[in-house]
Sequence to fold (201 residues):
Amino acid sequence: MTPPTTPQGRGRYPGYDVLDQVDHWDEATRRVVLARLDPPPIRFFDEDEARTLAAFCDTVMAQDSEPRIDVLAFVDEKLHEGRLDGFRYHDLPDDRDVWRIVARGLDEAARARDFSTFADALPAERRAICGDFAAGKLEGGAWEELNVSRAWEVVMRAVVQGFYSHPWAWNEMGFGGPAYPRGYAALGAGHKEHWEGDEAS
Fold:
């Protein structure tokens, strides 16, 4: 039996694979979930933006080894198809523009630390830049074009959605997958379905 895949091969539920439940999902759900195993091509970002932003997504989600969830592919698909969140902060441009500005700003921040691009920066330097971004401390250049703290919220919302929509992330945290049509019956703290995984101690 093939062991379940989790990001970086680490998970708290040894042997648990949500894809073992695929036969319990209706056809539409099965199609949507299984499609996430084959990330869509990059169509919104250009090659340089994609390289920078893929490194950003890996850094903020602490994906430092294979296997990795291709978070940027899902972000790119959302932006390419114009599936935005239905609201926009008054002091930010369109989310699509926010992402492009952030890509530029990350590369500028890396150049200030003597790296040609964010993707070329050492892991510790990338984490430091992301820490400054999260704290709203990046300034100058591209960062003057937006509210940095709010830009962090916009990009992280999409990153987290992309990461946790993937079955490998579900394996990592023991999530049982879609409830339709079977549903969940063992409700309440400390209860679990017979097919859910056991957390490692």
